[in-house]
């Protein structure tokens, strides 16, 4: 066994064990690798964060939403302003539902283009063009 590995023995509920076996059969990867990958998303050296309710509607700030999506804060803000990302602004502060963000991420792109900071605001883009006819 490599020195960076230690043995870990756990008892899982039967349904979770069956789901892990099915994942092994589907992916062809070893249980050790799959469990390590799943835990890597939840554990970090010097910091442990456990979700009390993994399916809950935890409310996130703009910074937390950007960290969850692993995107720059300004990119998340721009997508939220353009209504391409589920979120709400309250008194200038953005709030996001973790569950809504994860559903958005799982569904793929909501819009065919990515809003750029230099693009015109929606109300300016919707203005009819003036003609030279007068």
Could you please describe the fold and organization of this structure?
This protein is α+β, with helices and mostly antiparallel strands. Among the domains are: 14-48; 59-107. The chain has six helices and five strands; from the N terminus they run H-H-E-E-E-H-H-E-E-H-H. The chain has helices at residues 14-27, 31-40, 62-69, 73-81, 98-107, 122-125; strands at 43-44, 47-48, 59-61, 88-90, 93-97. The strands form two sheets. Strands 3-5-4 form a three-stranded antiparallel β-sheet. Helix 3 packs across helix 4. The radius of gyration is 22 Å and the shape is elongated. The relative contact order is 0.09. Mean pLDDT is 75; it is low at 110-132.
List the helices and strands and how they pair.
Elements: H1 14-27, H2 31-40, E1 43-44, E2 47-48, E3 59-61, H3 62-69, H4 73-81, E4 88-90, E5 93-97, H5 98-107, H6 122-125
Helix pairs in contact: 3-4
Features:
134 residues, alpha+beta, three-stranded antiparallel sheet, two-stranded antiparallel sheet, 6 helices, 5 strands, 11% strand, elongated, disordered C terminus
């Amino acid at each position: 066994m490599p020195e960076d590995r230690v043995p870990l023995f756990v008892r899982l509920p039967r349904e979770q064990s069956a789901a892990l076996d099915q994942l092994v059969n589907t992916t062809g990867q070893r249980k050790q690798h799959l469990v390590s990958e799943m835990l890597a998303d939840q554990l970090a050296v010097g910091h442990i964060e456990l979700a009390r309710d993994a399916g809950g509607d935890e409310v996130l700030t703009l910074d937390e939403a950007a960290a969850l999506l692993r995107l720059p804060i300004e990119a998340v803000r721009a997508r939220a302003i353009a209504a391409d990302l589920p979120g709400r602004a309250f008194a200038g502060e953005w709030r996001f539902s973790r569950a809504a963000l994860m559903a958005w991420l799982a569904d793929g792109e909501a819009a065919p283009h990515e809003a750029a900071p230099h693009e015109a605001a929606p109300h300016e883009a919707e203005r009819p063009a003036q003609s030279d006819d007068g």
